Each structure stands twice: as C-alpha cells, then as structure tokens.
C-alpha cells in the first residue's frame, strides 16, 4: 500500500483555514480594557448631564481614559440636544468641602430628666 503523503503547504493552509473560524480563548481583547472604556463613557455622560465641562471632568477622574470620557460626554451632549433635555447642575466638590467646613457642630444633647450632672 502506498503511504499517504501530504504537501506541507497544503497542510499549513488547511490548518490556517480551520483555525480562522474558531474563537480561541485568550486571543480576544482583554475584558478589563472594555470595562475601563465603558466606565469612562459613563463618567463622561454623567459629567455632561451634571453640566460639567470636559476639562473639569478630566480633573475629577484622573484614572479614567480621557478618550472614553470625551466619547461619553459627546454622546450625552448629542442625546440631550436632540431630546431637549436640560442638565442637572450639581455642586462642585470644592463647594461641598466649603459647606462641610461651615456646618456648625452638633449641639450637645440635654441631660435626661432625673439625672444629675457631676
């Protein structure tokens, strides 16, 4: 019986075609990258809805991807313009800190009736 021999080029081509149709685990994009991008888009959209400038948004979120923040901000801006939605301004973090400093200290609770203070 004659031995079955295959041309090496044909073997390589057939293996390449078989693997081209497969999703090999670990060769796709890293899901953490997609997660960071989605988070950046959400941050950008929230900043636009809160009537914050893009620069302020970058400063408040230094670890987020700037390109994703911008994309989310731009998408939300377009959506808000198309649907005539007004943003909801929120106090800036500096204003919140100043308000916290100006808050009076809580008043001491009065002593319960019948108890003597020493």
Question: What secondary-structure arrangement, pairings included, does this model have?
Answer:
Blueprint: H1 8-20, H2 31-49, H3 54-60, H4 66-82, H5 93-102
Structure description:
The chain is 56% helix and 0% strand. It has 118 residues and is an all-alpha fold. The longest helix is centred in the middle third of the chain and has 19 residues, at 31-49. The radius of gyration is 30 Å and the shape is elongated.
Q: Uncertain regions: pLDDT < 50 for 5+ in a row? A: none
Shape: elongated
Largest sheet: none
Rounded average pLDDT: 78
Q: Helix tally?
A: 5
Rg is: 30 Å
Secondary structure: number of strands: 0
Cα distance spanning the termini:
112 Å
Task: Tell me roughly what share of residues is in helical segments.
Answer: 55-70%
Percent strand equals: under 5%
Question: Could you give the order of the helices and strands?
Answer: HHHHH
Overall structural class, as computed from helix and strand content, comes to mainly alpha
Task: Report the oligomer.
Answer: single chain
């Amino acid at each position: 019986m004659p031995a079955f021999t295959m041309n090496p080029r044909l073997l390589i081509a057939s293996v390449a075609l078989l693997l081209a149709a497969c999703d090999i685990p670990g060769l796709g994009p890293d899901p953490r990258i997609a997660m960071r991008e989605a988070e950046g888009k959400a941050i950008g959209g929230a900043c636009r809805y809160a009537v914050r400038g893009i620069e302020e948004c970058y400063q408040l979120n230094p670890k987020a991807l700037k390109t994703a923040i911008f994309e989310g901000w731009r998408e939300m801006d377009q959506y808000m313009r198309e649907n005539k939605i007004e943003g909801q301004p929120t106090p800036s973090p500096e204003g919140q800190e100043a308000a916290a400093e100006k808050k009076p200290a809580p008043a001491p609770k009065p002593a319960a009736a019948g108890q003597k203070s020493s």
